[in-house]
Amino acid sequence: MLLLLTILLLPLTQATCEWANQVPLLSDNYPTAISPDFMKYVEKVGKLFDVPGLSLGVVRKGHEAQFFNWGQRDEDGNSPTECTMYPMASASKNFASTSFGILMDDFKHGRNVTPLPYGVELDWETKLVDLLQDEWGLKDPYTSGHVKVIDLLSHVTGLPRHEFSYDLDTPLPHLVSQLQYLRPTHELRETFEYINLMYSVITRVIGKYSNMSYTSFVESRIFTRLGMTSTTFHPERAWQSRDWVQLWVREAGPYYNQTRVVPWYLEERAVDGPVSGPGGVVSNTKDMATYLGILLNGGIHPDTGEQLIPRAVLDSVMLGRVVEEGRASYPELAPTLYGAGWQSTGYQGHEIVQHGGGARGISTALLFLPNDGVGVVALCNGNNQHPALFALVFRIIEESLGLKRIDWISRCAGSLGYETREPNICQVEGSTLGVTVRASTVYPAATFTAATILGTGATLGTTRFHREYGAFIKSFRHLCQPRL
Ligand SMILES: *[C@@H]1O[C@H](CO)[C@@H](O)[C@H](O)[C@H]1NC(C)=O
Ligand SMILES: *[C@@H]1O[C@H](CO)[C@@H](O)[C@H](O)[C@H]1NC(C)=O
């Protein structure tokens, strides 16, 4: 799903105030409620795309949220509801970037007195070497000395994913100390390269300067304050609630064509480990609807009027900085920019702020239209189900804003199994997030050298060099299609 494209950096000053100056369409054009007929469409998508279960939440500014659920949440055939807990995968990243912004705001207003290194301020532009000091080091000396917090969060460090250099149990300090062995593929800020690892690094920074664990900071400063009472980083809490999804993959078995339930990619013991930042949030559509409602309201609670997240923080994390996809794949869409844990794009002329997530057995999408007062959360307990989620999300936007109907079912069905069913494409599945990626595009052979992996020592595990992929693979299951 991620394409590595050439870079185009936006001057930050140019766009900072635009958001605030845009006239919202809300005053004379309220979004329309989703009709009950929509369930027929959901059912059609669910069946066609072979979806196990789905939970959708639709938020319209100034109205009660609407929820739609379909299919099954577990093998017993129980239905999901708006309370059913799902792991959010990468839709967790905006909580890491937003919590850094909140910490920054705490320092600026004297709410945090944890000592900072002499002469150092905590800001988006602060260099990692100043914040992590002796702990910090990258292979390329220039990048090491110049990379800023915002570079980490916008995926422009020049490092590729290096997904196999760590696992669920790698302690954060160890992960940070081993970064120096990971080979870059580009120069700093040369191009967009998605890397989960840097969202682990930011949690180390937040933990260090908030004087509490990353997950405690986010729980107290975001989940609790915003009234997201079920949302947590602790999978155990979801499992105890008894209302949680089992996860399915469709690529199990010797021919990669069997559907099976798989364990969650999160483990209780790994809370505050490498995965909490990039993909650790567990939530339901009810809480995410609350969150979207507050985001649509500029960080202000719709009932109490309290500013729960500083507006400047939201403006910073949602501001597109890097071109992620320089061309839209359909004429109704727009190119995609990456901010900090949020992407921005457009649909039929309406700006969308979004982030999707995918890990073993789970597909998620979290998005809102800041100028139109509409937000959508779409969660599915199946692997690689983004085509189904797109078909649903676009229909919701069309209905809400009275836009032209596009046949997204046909379009998305055309890309069904894009990542898994294409013949002659060999894939590897990472042990850490269970993310399925193409070896050929995401892991250029150059990023894997003996020094890269051997240098990391403790993470060797069952790593071996796989000649066919030109990559070091750690405890992976390779998904090579039978040749047709
Ligand atoms: C950090 O927290 C501990 C207790 O958890 C406290 O004793 C200490 O004073 C705090 N340090 C700072 C700098 O706030
Ligand atoms: C999977 O593929 C194999 C080999 O083509 C076939 O024999 C088997 O029936 C398939 N299983 C399913 C569940 O489709």
Automatic annotation (TrEMBL):
The keyword Signal applies. Residues 50-387 form the Beta-lactamase-related domain. Residues 1-15 form the signal peptide. The keyword Signal applies. Keywords: Signal. InterPro entries: AmpC-like (IPR050491), Beta-lactam-related (IPR001466), Beta-lactam/transpept-like (IPR012338). PANTHER family: BETA-LACTAMASE-RELATED DOMAIN-CONTAINING PROTEIN, D-ALANYL-D-ALANINE-CARBOXYPEPTIDASE/ENDOPEPTIDASE AMPH. Belongs to the peptidase S12 family. This is Beta-lactamase/transpeptidase-like protein. It comes from Calocera cornea HHB12733.
